[in-house]
Q: What sequence folds into this?
């Protein structure tokens, strides 16, 4: 991007501030905008370095800015089809996101992970594998995982690797983004309040491979209809993984062993019970995807398997917290949609008191309720969706339901309902917004409560 280009960054969160910093470094004329009417220009300036030259605008968008802006940089939380964005589109502005902006300064190789579920675990594991292979100073883990690409891209060089967790929101605004190895772990209904249709959501996910060629690799889930179908039209070389089928070529699960198949020839890689600290079939799939991506990036298999054996669960994803009074507590706060929460239930091997509910993303909960299969003994519901979920559960014949008005009330209720030999699982099938700033805060409050039980303070 040329010096002096007039750029407007929409959103004053982590990715927006990262974009401002990079654009200033590049010599652009930058304005930071936030539509939140509770914010002032002074509030925005306090978020920026004192020596910066970025202008700040809050509330109503001046028409002059619409006319002058050459590049509009959207934070992931900003929909691409709202009237504000359409005004800039109609005025001829280039519209990109923070991931695209960061990529334009990338000098090394990129590996990118998307999917409805499993992104964070797979990205984190792949990042650890790449660090073991190249050294930590040559690997950057960025994107939806919480570290802005724009904060790391200037550190890249010809021998570095950037591993990115890329959401559907971020993939809506790419243009030249081109990973050497990509992966779509799975696609199930999610964020339909943002994408409106399943077709639009699937198209956003498939964008991760839009600029790839046959010289690149795209790792896909053979067991998921959407990703398997995409394999037939993906522009990259496709590598499949499967937990349900034995493939002619690819990575799959035979019994309790992950194996690599090549032309029908089998190589045993690891035992999912003896060689993995992660639990649940979803994590078996995440490990297979990470192995496939790492091999695609040229990492020796011995290095890959050593890292897999040592790797622990990502925080908030089927994370064992502690045992209290004979009850096991698991934090799966990252189960923010029904399909992710199904994986949390499948990982349980004890009668389970399940915490569900939260922000309504217009999801359907039928498959989630059906996955209870006698394992869930109580469903404790909170948040905006609790009535909707309760109605769905009763429709499926499950009526052991309790409501809680606050998270603290919910946790105390779960402790009362759980008996020795049970599990308490926070896996809400809903986003945290409304009651919490994000799923991390929700998960940490859960863990603090469990630790308080240990200390006898609750």
A:
């Amino acid at each position: 991007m040329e010096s002096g280009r007039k750029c407007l960054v929409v959103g004053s969160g982590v990715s927006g501030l990262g974009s401002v910093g990079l654009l200033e470094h590049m010599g652009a004329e930058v304005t930071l905008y936030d539509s939140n009417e509770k914010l002032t220009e002074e509030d925005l300036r306090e978020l920026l370095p004192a020596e910066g030259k970025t202008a700040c605008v809050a509330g109503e968008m001046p028409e002059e800015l619409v006319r002058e802006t050459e590049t509009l940089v959207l934070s992931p939380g900003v929909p691409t089809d709202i009237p504000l964005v359409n005004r800039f589109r109609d005025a001829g502005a280039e519209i990109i996101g923070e991931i695209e902006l960061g990529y334009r300064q990338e000098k090394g190789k990129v590996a990118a992970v998307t999917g409805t579920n499993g992104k964070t675990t797979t990205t984190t594991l792949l990042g650890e594998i790449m660090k073991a292979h190249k050294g930590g100073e040559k690997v950057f883990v960025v994107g939806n995982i919480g570290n802005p690409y724009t904060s790391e891209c200037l550190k890249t060089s010809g021998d570095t690797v950037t591993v990115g967790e890329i959401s559907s929101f971020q993939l809506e605004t790419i243009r030249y983004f081109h990973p050497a190895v990509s992966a779509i772990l799975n696609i199930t209904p999610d964020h339909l309040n943002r994408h409106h249709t399943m077709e639009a959501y699937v198209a956003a996910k498939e964008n991760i491979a839009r600029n790839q060629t046959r010289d690149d690799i795209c790792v896909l889930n053979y067991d998921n209809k959407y990703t398997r179908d995409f394999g037939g039209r993906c522009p990259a070389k496709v590598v499949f993984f499967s937990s349900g089928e034995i493939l002619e070529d690819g990575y799959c699960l035979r019994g309790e062993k992950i194996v690599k198949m090549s032309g029908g020839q089998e190589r045993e890689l690891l035992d999912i019970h003896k060689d993995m600290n992660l639990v649940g079939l979803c994590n078996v799939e995440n490990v297979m995807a990470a192995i496939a991506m790492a091999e695609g990036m040229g990492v020796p298999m011995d290095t890959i398997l050593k890292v897999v054996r040592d790797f622990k669960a990502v925080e908030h994803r089927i994370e064992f917290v502690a045992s209290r009074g004979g009850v096991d507590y698991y934090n799966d706060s990252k189960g923010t949609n029904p399909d992710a929460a199904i994986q949390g239930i499948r990982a349980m091997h004890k009668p389970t008191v399940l915490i569900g509910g939260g922000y309504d993303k217009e999801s359907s909960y039928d498959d989630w309720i059906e996955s209870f299969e006698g394992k869930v003994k109580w469903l404790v519901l909170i948040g905006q969706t609790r009535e909707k979920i309760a109605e769905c559960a009763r429709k499926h014949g499950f009526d052991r339901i309790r409501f809680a008005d606050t998270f603290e009330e919910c946790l105390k209720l779960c402790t009362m309902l759980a008996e020795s030999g049970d599990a308490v699982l926070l896996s809400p099938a809903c986003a945290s917004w409304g009651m919490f700033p994000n799923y991390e805060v929700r998960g940490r409050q859960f863990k603090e409560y469990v630790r308080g039980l240990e200390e006898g303070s609750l």
